[in-house]
Design brief:
Number of domains: 1
Shape: globular
Strand order of the largest sheet: 3-2-1-9-8-7-6-5-4
CATH topology: TIM Barrel
Order of helices and strands: EHEHHEEHEHEHEHHEHEH
CATH class: Alpha Beta
Distance between the termini: 11 Å
CATH architecture: Alpha-Beta Barrel
Mean pLDDT: 98
Bound molecules: zinc ion
Oligomer: single chain
Largest sheet: 9 strands, parallel
Number of helices: 10
CATH superfamily: Divalent-metal-dependent TIM barrel enzymes
Low-confidence stretches: none
């Protein structure tokens, strides 16, 4: 297992962690000030300053992209909705390619309508079928372009509205069905926030292996979580055995960035950006 205690060369910042710090250009400048070598930006943040300008800033600062967030959200109530999702995923693949991201992260979607507060169906098995079909269609295009797709299983509390793939096992079953040759074109993003509780986690990480482990996201689970989406903890402040999980992914062959992804409207988004980044760096060394 790599020693992170002496430097932060393997730290990546998911730019959602700095949503309190303004636009993406300011976020990138802040990361550069702290000698951060990699980021993972969100599409809305990129769109707000423009794709070309983002690409120029990334080049100027010599940044790597540990991922690009995000594609997915495949299920819809009708064919037109499903096609719109596929078109949007194609655009996300193109953007990820232009920015030279390591992978496009997929948050696959749940029950149509649920994200805006009114689920139009209760058919979760049907949603999962649509997800599989949506990934299959997107994978055909992503293979042509050469952009790996990383399915991110989300904690089951998001099964209705954000992702009906909720365990690493489920995600890997989809990978095995659609990419049995383990080509590297399809894999998973392991986010400790979503999977830390899973009794099968160690075994499923081993099953994933190097070919399927495309991204590793860290933050912490606060035992008294106040908000199910925007109260993620800083590494070391919660109950996740982060270093143990990192040891598992590295034993399986993962050698990429540890990407800090903290949605925290209640705490970290309110703090000065330099304090957030200094804390991320310190905790990357001591708690990851
Ligand atoms: Zn994540």
């Amino acid at each position: 297992m790599r020693d992170f205690s002496a430097d932060h060369r393997w730290l990546s910042i998911n730019t959602a962690t700095l949503r309190g710090a303004g636009k993406l250009d300011a976020i990138i400048e802040a990361c550069a000030r702290h000698d951060i070598r990699a980021i993972s930006p969100w599409r809305d943040q990129v769109a707000a300053i423009g794709l070309e300008r983002t690409a120029a800033l990334v080049r100027e600062h010599g940044l790597a992209l540990s991922g690009y967030c995000r594609g997915g959200m495949f299920p819809a109530v009708d064919a037109a909705g499903r096609q719109a999702a596929l078109d949007d995923n194609r655009r996300a693949v193109d953007e990820a390619k232009l920015l030279d991201a390591a992978c496009l992260v997929l948050v696959v979607g749940g029950l149509p309508g649920a994200l805006v507060g009114a689920a139009l169906t209760r058919d979760i098995a049907g949603a999962r079928e649509q997800v599989r079909d949506g990934i299959a269609a997107t994978l055909d295009y992503a293979r042509e372009v050469g952009m790996p797709l990383a399915i991110e299983p989300l904690h089951p509390m998001y099964a209705a509205d954000r992702a009906c793939i909720n365990t690493l096992e489920q995600a890997l079953d989809v990978c095995d069905a659609l990419d049995p040759q383990r080509s590297g074109a399809l894999g998973v993003a392991v986010d400790v926030y979503h999977v830390w509780w899973d009794p099968k986690l160690e075994a499923q990480i081993a099953r994933a292996g190097k070919a399927r482990l495309l991204a590793f996201h860290v933050c912490d689970w606060l035992a008294k979580t106040r908000d199910l989406l925007e109260d993620r903890g800083m590494m070391g402040d919660g109950v996740i055995e982060i270093a143990k999980i990192r040891a598992w992914v590295e034993a399986a062959g993962f050698a990429g960035y540890s990407e800090v992804e903290i949605f925290s409207s209640l705490d970290w988004w309110k703090r000065p950006v330099d304090e957030v980044l200094a804390t991320c760096i310190a905790r990357h060394r001591s708690a990851v």
